[in-house]
Amino acid sequence: MKQSAQGPAGTGDPRPAAAQPLRVPAQPAAADRERTRGRDAVAGADDAPEHTTHGWPSPGRPGAPVRRSSVRGQVLDALRAALTAGDLRPGEVYSAPVLGERFGVSATPVREAMQQLALEGAVEVVPNRGFRVVERDARELAELAEVRALIEVPVLLRLARTVPAGRWARLRPVAEATVRAASSGCPAAYAEADRAFHREVLALAGNEQLLRVAGDLHRRAQWPPAPAPAVRGRAGLIADAHQHTALLDALITGDQDLVRALVAEHFATAL
Fold it and tell me: Are β-strands 130-133 and 93-94 bridged in parallel, bridged antiparallel, or unpaired?
């Protein structure tokens, strides 16, 4: 099933942190940049700044220092949001040095974030060039939906039998947050709210391994396929979000047949 009323305090931005422009500190002095380049060369995944970022917006640069690990996390969140929104296009090669310049950081945290995305199957390393966004087809999306259903449906049916209605009712704000996020029309905002709802539902099973595996499959299912970023419009997102509230109603009443049908429909329309 594929919150956002406010962003971080004081910003007024309705998108979640992952969907907002990345904000990282200003770069160090030239001598420090040269030392950074030397360290980056050891990693060696890509050193070709000629590849463009296809007009990706350049983020702002506040003066407060940020630890590199924090910068890496911000870069990773921004790249994941860009994948969901279709800003990183399937088949395109992206250079870590160029993206680093756009973000106002060295190539190292960008490369580290891209390597994480490679482990997740979103990109692949192109030696001496950068990272190519993996092109996916309808078959792969259908396979992901099938695997998600095999994992989540039995869990949801068990939870429908065992979890009290009052406990399900506490998830109402999470389901309603997906509708608000969908109404914003921002795919990245909706993707984050969607994952939050599924995570809260599955968390009632008390199985951390389930959350990890299901979360990875869910994230991969949200990346647009090739040849073009097939990002759904606002109406499609809203329809998808309302399936969350319908599923929650079925879970509250313990209607297992309806739960099974709603989850099957939800995974099918998410393609």
Answer: antiparallel
Q: Which positions ≥6 away from 144 have C-beta within 8 Å?
A: 217, 220, 221
Beta carbons within 8 Å of 11's beta carbon, 6+ residues apart: 20
Contact 166, 154 (CB under 8 A): no
Of 69, 67, 94, the residue nearest 82 (C-alpha)? 94
Residues contacting residue 185 through CB under 8 Å, at least 6 positions apart: 233, 234, 237
Question: DSSP 3-state assignment of 93?
Answer: strand
Residue type, 21: P
As averages over each run of 10 residues, the pLDDT of the chain (271 residues) reads 41 43 40 41 41 42 46 90 85 91 88 92 92 88 90 94 94 96 90 95 96 92 64 82 95 92 83 51
CA quadruple 150, 151, 153, 154: dihedral sign: positive
- Output Rg (C-alpha) for the chain, integer angstroms: 20
The single-letter DSSP state of residue 171 is T
How many Å apart are CA 128 and CA 265, to the nearest integer? 43
Exposed / middle / buried, residue 132 (Cβ in 10 Å: 0-12, 13-18, 19+): middle
In order of 66, 149, 175, 180, 234, the CA distances from 186 in angstroms are 27, 26, 17, 10, 8
Residue 91 near residue 135, CB atoms below 8 Å: yes
